Predict the 3D structure of the following.
Amino acid sequence: KTAGIEAPFSMKGRNLNGLVDGSGRDEWPDDVYIQISESHCGRAVRTRKWKYSVRAPDAQRKAGFSDTYVEDFLYDLEKDPHERNNLVSDPKLDKVREEMKQRLLKHMEHANEPRAEITSRQQSPA
């Protein structure tokens, strides 16, 4: 209930009061899901340390979603806060990429998006 009005069943979200006043901060997820649809069709997930993004190369510019995505970037935000060094192709970070990919797919599923495949940049056609 917000402002004395029941939220519609279809509305997803959480009350921010516990986050703002600090009483429920530990109950919040440690990542943020981002849908990109202005400049291209893409998705991203961000934690305090990592930012991982995928792009749908065959989707229309303003497409809402795609069933195939290609890894676009991975940034270590602690070492590279200005996002200048894209690590998405670094084989030493395969485990990090896989973890971030799984986080992203879970968020996409929670948003009721169609099941999607994410291909690594190394596997994708040039």
User: Anything to note?
Assistant: The radius of gyration is 17 Å. The mean pLDDT is 85.
